[in-house]
Amino acid sequence: MTSSRPYLLRALNEWILDNDCTPYIVVDASVENVHVPQEYVNDGQIILNITPASIRNLVMDNESVSFDARFGGQPHHLYVPISAITAIYARENGQGMVFGQEAGPTEPTPPGGGKAKSPDAGKSGGNKPRLKVVK
């Protein structure tokens, strides 16, 4: 499946704006292809205000977020791959979401490429579907 991050990012941005708040995104500036003004990066990250009144030409697609903004009166075109966005939140109350790492395979493939046996295999009811928290 494709990453859920761009969909969540767009939905949370809309939710924050609908509640008359200011959306901020937190960007990991060390990720490849991030184009932000480096003089405003602190501890490897930058926090960007993406309120429509503060920026121009916002594009939020499944690969990146890009827009034009001014820093210290100087115009800049910013480009941020979706993978570099670590959070989105409302400035006024801090509500939003921190993004974790994308989920990978839930179980490693055992040596020989065979399927791993479930710890409940052989027990009655061992083949019932279960939810599992993936970090």
Brief summary:
The protein has 1 helix and 7 strands, in the order αβββββββ. With 135 residues, the protein is mainly β.
Structural account:
The chain is mainly beta and 135 residues long. The protein is built from one helix and seven strands, in the order αβββββββ. Strands 2-1-6-7 form a four-stranded antiparallel sheet. The protein has a three-stranded antiparallel sheet with strand order 3-4-5, with helices on one face. A hairpin with a 5-residue loop joins strand 6 and strand 7. The longest helix has 14 residues.
Detail the topology: elements first, then pairings.
Layout: H1 5-18, E1 23-28, E2 45-49, E3 56-60, E4 64-71, E5 74-81, E6 85-90, E7 96-98
Antiparallel strand pairs: 1-2, 1-6, 3-4, 4-5, 6-7
Entry keywords:
single chain; 135 residues; mainly beta; four-stranded antiparallel sheet; three-stranded antiparallel sheet; 7 strands; globular
Structural class: mainly beta
Order of helices and strands: HEEEEEEE
Q: So what's the oligomer here?
A: single chain
Question: For the CA atoms, what is the radius of gyration?
Answer: 20 Å
Q: Can you give the helix content as a percent range?
A: 10-25%
Percent of residues in β-strands: 25-35%
Poorly predicted segments? 104-125
Number of strands: 7
Shape: globular
Question: Whole-number average pLDDT?
Answer: 84
Tally of contiguous helical segments:
1
Distance between the termini: 17 Å
Largest beta sheet: what is the strand line-up? 2-1-6-7
Major beta-sheet overview:
4 strands, antiparallel
